[in-house]
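Q: Could you fold this chain for me?
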Amino acid sequence: AQEKESQGKYDEAKKLYLQIIGRKYVATRLGQCCYLTGDIENAVYWNNEGCSEGCMHAPYNLFMLYNNPNNANFYNLESAVDNLLIAFERRHNKALESIKGLIYDKNCDPKLVVKLCEGVKLLGYEISREELYNLGRAYYSLGDGAKCEECYIKATEHGHPQSAHDLQDMYAKGDLIPQDYDKALYYLRISSIINS
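A: Sure. Below is the predicted structure, expressed as structure tokens.
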């Protein structure tokens, strides 16, 4: 009797599992079909459904939809970045590549670069020296000298030459951080060592 009860619970759990898997798969596929037929509104709707069901592909699809200026009514970089971070968290295979593309894009809004870098750090990704430098540039553009300095120092510690040069320049001029000629000279030396 106990074995029959366990089997019944197993069958019920299996049925529920298949319904959930099927639902998120179907919603995301519907979203893709709508996109291919040019129905962007329903593509967004169905991918949002798939996203809420836990599908890893749906947030990446939403990133692509929101990041496309041709989708005028849905073009929204903030929403694009939010969905890209969800796709990264769900381990979508193209998410990290897209994140890096935005971080390295010199025309990307600095607020979005900060959001992406801080978001992936919270999710356990260790950003590279180049990404640290770009994060520092974003903080510089936003006028946050302390965070810019912190990122540039970390990037310099990992051998990034431009961050050492920019630190030297910031300390020499007192640009967003207190002027400090000793630190300016120190980072000028570090920059020359890294570049040699």
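A (continued): Residues 2-36 form the longest helix (35 residues).
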